[in-house]
Amino acid sequence: MGTIERRGIMERLDNGEVVIGDGGFVFALEKRGYVKAGPWTPEAVVEHPEAVRQLHREFLRAGSDVMQAFTFYASDDKLSNRGNTASQKYGCTNINAAACRVAREVAQEGGALFLGGVCQTPTYLSGASKEDTKEIFRGQMGAFKDEGVDFILCEYFEHVEEAEWAIEVGLETGLPVACSMCIGPQGDMHGNSAGDCAIRMARAGAKIVGVNCHYDPFVSLEAIKLMKEALERENLKAYLMCQPLAYMTPDAGKQGFIDLPEFPFALESRICNRWDMHRYAREAYDLGVRFIGGCCGFEPYHIRAVAEELAAERGRFPAGSEKHVVWGGGLKMHTKPWVRARANREYWENLNPASGRPYSSAMSKPDNWGVTRGNEMLVQHAHETTTEEEDLVRGIKGKLKMACCQHHQETKKEADLVAAAQAVTETA
Amino acid sequence: MGTIERRGIMERLDNGEVVIGDGGFVFALEKRGYVKAGPWTPEAVVEHPEAVRQLHREFLRAGSDVMQAFTFYASDDKLSNRGNTASQKYGCTNINAAACRVAREVAQEGGALFLGGVCQTPTYLSGASKEDTKEIFRGQMGAFKDEGVDFILCEYFEHVEEAEWAIEVGLETGLPVACSMCIGPQGDMHGNSAGDCAIRMARAGAKIVGVNCHYDPFVSLEAIKLMKEALERENLKAYLMCQPLAYMTPDAGKQGFIDLPEFPFALESRICNRWDMHRYAREAYDLGVRFIGGCCGFEPYHIRAVAEELAAERGRFPAGSEKHVVWGGGLKMHTKPWVRARANREYWENLNPASGRPYSSAMSKPDNWGVTRGNEMLVQHAHETTTEEEDLVRGIKGKLKMACCQHHQETKKEADLVAAAQAVTETA
Amino acid sequence: MGTIERRGIMERLDNGEVVIGDGGFVFALEKRGYVKAGPWTPEAVVEHPEAVRQLHREFLRAGSDVMQAFTFYASDDKLSNRGNTASQKYGCTNINAAACRVAREVAQEGGALFLGGVCQTPTYLSGASKEDTKEIFRGQMGAFKDEGVDFILCEYFEHVEEAEWAIEVGLETGLPVACSMCIGPQGDMHGNSAGDCAIRMARAGAKIVGVNCHYDPFVSLEAIKLMKEALERENLKAYLMCQPLAYMTPDAGKQGFIDLPEFPFALESRICNRWDMHRYAREAYDLGVRFIGGCCGFEPYHIRAVAEELAAERGRFPAGSEKHVVWGGGLKMHTKPWVRARANREYWENLNPASGRPYSSAMSKPDNWGVTRGNEMLVQHAHETTTEEEDLVRGIKGKLKMACCQHHQETKKEADLVAAAQAVTETA
Amino acid sequence: MGTIERRGIMERLDNGEVVIGDGGFVFALEKRGYVKAGPWTPEAVVEHPEAVRQLHREFLRAGSDVMQAFTFYASDDKLSNRGNTASQKYGCTNINAAACRVAREVAQEGGALFLGGVCQTPTYLSGASKEDTKEIFRGQMGAFKDEGVDFILCEYFEHVEEAEWAIEVGLETGLPVACSMCIGPQGDMHGNSAGDCAIRMARAGAKIVGVNCHYDPFVSLEAIKLMKEALERENLKAYLMCQPLAYMTPDAGKQGFIDLPEFPFALESRICNRWDMHRYAREAYDLGVRFIGGCCGFEPYHIRAVAEELAAERGRFPAGSEKHVVWGGGLKMHTKPWVRARANREYWENLNPASGRPYSSAMSKPDNWGVTRGNEMLVQHAHETTTEEEDLVRGIKGKLKMACCQHHQETKKEADLVAAAQAVTETA
């Protein structure tokens, strides 16, 4: 970790290097006690910067080349949505600036880059105008620019239109802009294919495009594959990035893991292990992805597995490998001889882990509402959901059941099914 | 968290309070990049105290009333076992003292107690004498005493004999001594029943007795139940403590999760969720357990779930509940209406989570070696396992297979089966 | 099949031979369209004797040494219970006599013995007197005697008291009497242990005792093991018989598969395959069981697997092996080479079959009512259940839910848990 | 069953009626002891006609409108393939004629039609010429014509080319010809799409086209859907027929259940229950399929479920419903009140059955060899596979493993994935 170098993101990629991203802050910090599931906003950067700093350090140690400031959902509209008081207490600009400072501090400890990110907004979902939506992005981007981020990431968009608008604002900073959408092989919520989304992101000016969140690594790579093919067809040059979930989601529909019944408080049995991540890193690399990271569920050890799988290509192991011998080698030091016998790649690569849950099944049926921008139920509200509203939703849920099944069968497209199949295909 | 009070552990228990323990440091810090799986020793307290401190703070915030210094396996023999250089680099005393200081610092931030712990030793397993084994414990206990711990915990013993010796050394400090064994309802590795183990721990002078590690919460409570009945039968007074795994282990045999094929790198699909911990906390409380904590796999949010379940009994919520509404209430602030519909207890309490793994089964077959103290293969070695030794183990493994199956069927006793059944019984 | 010999059942057993029973007629003929699930009575012997004859022939061909007349539930009270008109249409005696004739005819084709059986009665369950209950048995036994059966089987009793009464009536015929109960390792519905049940059956005069129905082969063998130990303890001589389900039931409670949610119309995914039956036959033989057959779910090919596993001990293969090479050898003649590669024991013995059902779990939660003789809900009625009664039952079911869980946990005894564990232990 | 009417197959279909087929003879008779797994040839029609007759009667009673003579694989080349001596013992013509006579006899008992069928041949697979292959078909068709069958079925073809040749021979008889292929949504082994296969079968002269065997009902219906769309696109008129497996196969690849590791001796846990068949019948009917039957695994009760689901459309219940009340109604006569509570549609329609197998997974990985016509390994041989050949296959299997995975991922097309998804989508 000794070398202090600050070559930019584009220099690194143009040089043929693999850039390793970090993991998921909202889920990791929710489990550590600093983020509230539901609003998922990052006021922890002001309230408990030491906790955020520690998580950055762990990812740095695990091999991350970039420190992404914890600015997820830190737009002014989200910070005041449905009972959230973070905007009022701390202010949008302060939160974004504080996040940048923590990220920068840790990045400087290890020669990493640092960046700020924006994502989908309640404003857009409520049906507001292009200019109103862009103003929301400008609220965050200004802070990024002031704090000297190395590049901008627009991520977690369900609609490519909103992604384009975010890219446009990002470009106003003069910095390189990357953009990833939370879509699978089925494409976005307006019916644009994954390939078309990639084309539009690249044409809007993003130098790096891809997907993040919503699907497991293997479903996500299917989407990336479709993006790659589309870009090549159109002779567009853009680097590919992939930052998937660390939860297995072969059964997720168009809105990804949000719709799984286990979201967000019972996903444990779906968590990928480190060997899944070795496979992910290898398949991503072979597909040509050069920005390889993670999203919700990715803990430092998952990123370390990515860095270890690609150690030969990158010419180095991450600092954290000081405490981890590849493919379970550390078990050679275990007290019990039969555990020492597991200290090899063949053992772990071929193991199908049991769940220890005899009453649980392999797959769930997602909710599959398919509701999107323009639907009344998605409009932003400052107050928390009332009981009356909850009852309404449940009633609608009942009625939609049959219709949705129908809808589901009709819209389930080949691409997401390829992804689903991939997701359950293991190398064994 | 405002009140600064330092009433001792016995005062609290005598006063009828529930004391909430913390979670598992070795597994949590392994995932964060600071502990090596295999040796599992805690030199991180010297190498990266900020990482250890942060984890203490998270447990404090989650509701832990005690900060256990990260001294697991920090005995001089273990720190130099099978290639481990920690002893040589830092020294056993330094490691134990450093761990105490970090724990004390955080404890003082929140009115918590702090303690030091010792556990099973390679010395005992190698067949050494009582006095040699006790000397190993004294190496750690001295540091605990010097650093002013509030009480001593002897934990993770597979043989009640070694536990007794540890208690004896603990009592030399003049401090209260708690003791828990890593056993299930089947009892210890020498064939002593769980009830007899409790009796012997209490008679040796432990004021608090119970189990930790090796089994999931529900199997562990079965062992505790047997202990409770035995203590009552003998009119022995001791408080009960339970600090189980956060991994589902209905299929584990006599050596617990160590023998499961997924140990230690593919346990993800077995991780308990927060609702499992609500059930655990309630069942533990109803059984009369008053020291309720966790071991490997327990993350801060698991401890918070325990504290939230017992909020009424304790008269307070933990600090971390600032970011967590009980029973999923935070989802009322979610953007999607169908996720808002999950903001209630009934939903989460009745959900059987899917694994997302169509090629995985519900249960595994444990290794079930049943090898214990005195066996050649368990003798301590300073060097790492060689390839020759590994081959030998695999060869023996093959030969033992049939014999072990036989053995397994004969020794599988009622108590661990009760536990196994409990483990898979859910409230739905 | 050529040798025509009619040595009696006791001669064969005294000679150290293994007697192979047949499979389950009610379930097999329900699927073939001749028996009604619900009443389960055998009027098919009058209505469609050719269908019953064919099934007898298949079992004979598969290796059965005894042809059990299809007289299950053919007592006069059952034939007129809850809307059943069979008694009125055909008469109890006619049904039993017709069943005997069909069985005898086929038995004579292959040197097999033939027998008549009685089982639990609505009369007993309604709380009637000993004499009234015995009169019901006499109604069937008279026909058996007249038709010249080789021996009597009293089977499928949930209460050892009723079994004793049946044995007493059986002995009045002067023929050898066998008796098996539909219990698992937990014992009968009145709280008598499996061991005590065996002792009482033997003392009542049964020469062959054991279990049938309600549990899978491996759970059933656990019950048999307890019976064997009890008989040895008391120095009682009786041969052991086992005629289990061909459905996997590791999760069944005290009333067996009746209480599983899948009973009786969705048990398919639990059906044992022929390799499970090889294991069953071997384990039964090794335990000393010498009357080895099957009950509900056992099809001819399951019995053939038993006969093939014990071919060396018996000195012969069954006639049906003309169309079956042991351990999959017939696949050597398959068109596809990769299927030919499965023509060996190792392949089949180590295969854990997938269910092809990603939404299904490994285990179910049984109903566990635990209602028994004397309960108002069990009293015999001539009319079918009315809607009002159904509603009542559902209401009670809701109320009993919590209480039953409680009850379940308290009464779940070691023996049935041993059985449960056995049931899920495979040789792989 | 009273009405004796013999309107032809085309009259019935042209009249808008639903024709219900029968189930699978080879698998049913293998379990009953009369067919050998591996060669799967139907010499039982000569050796044990009473067993074949009884199975016909059960299907008739279950609602089948057509009795298919048991002539599967009864071509002269197959009857003498890989050690089979049936051709030599009985002669191809005798077997086909005997099969027709048994089918006709039972058909006449219930106003059913009767037909003869041909299927894929070792001759074609060995790469023989068109004329040689057609001669093989003529060997069977002659017997069909002589025995007066009502129509001809060409079925179980993996290559549409061979299906066309069979249809051509069939037309020579002057009878109506139906044709179904054992393909899924992926199409045939030569890469022809399911839609193209339907077009070619219709153009070759088949009046009824569809699929049989190899996939479960829901995957099969996906293939049918593609066929229907293609026929409509080309303005071709042909009735649709579907005769799928009664085994769940969401995980099967291009060669269907043959490639699943459980084939053919461990498929039990995949068996569809009667409620699955209700859903199949409804979905088939709604898709426009008017020849609805089953193949391997379909037992009489499965066919009865089809007939009961379509009772309103057909204006009658099958004879076998005398012993079956729709949707579990017979349970109203059960002794236990909690079982009586299951006597309703809602209960069974929403039940996800457990497997009772905690060590088994939801899905398997198919072998996926993808070897087809022209490959050396598929050439016909008169002798049984030798040990040397077996070793060779295993060796090849190992080497092909990596290549096949690759192949599998590349060839896994959208259509079969749609089918796979459908297969696991249940109505609940």
UniProtKB/TrEMBL annotation, chains A, B, C, D:
GO BP field:
methionine biosynthetic process; methylation
SUPFAM superfamilies documented for this protein: Homocysteine S-methyltransferase
Task: Name one molecular function that GO assigns to this entry.
Answer: betaine-homocysteine S-methyltransferase activity
Give the metabolic or biological pathway. Answer: Amino-acid biosynthesis; L-methionine biosynthesis via de novo pathway; L-methionine from L-homocysteine (BhmT route): step 1/1
Note accompanying the cofactor annotation: Binds 1 zinc ion per subunit.
Which residues of this UniProt protein bind Zn(2+)?
A: C213, C295, C296
Keywords linked to the UniProt accession: Metal-binding, Methyltransferase, Transferase, Zinc
Q: Which cofactor does it need?
A: Zn(2+)
Task: Tell me the domain of life.
Answer: Eukaryota
Q: Which PANTHER family match?
A: BETAINE--HOMOCYSTEINE S-METHYLTRANSFERASE 1, HCY-BINDING DOMAIN-CONTAINING PROTEIN
UniProt-recorded name of the protein: Hcy-binding domain-containing protein
The lineage is: Eukaryota, Metazoa, Spiralia, Lophotrochozoa, Platyhelminthes
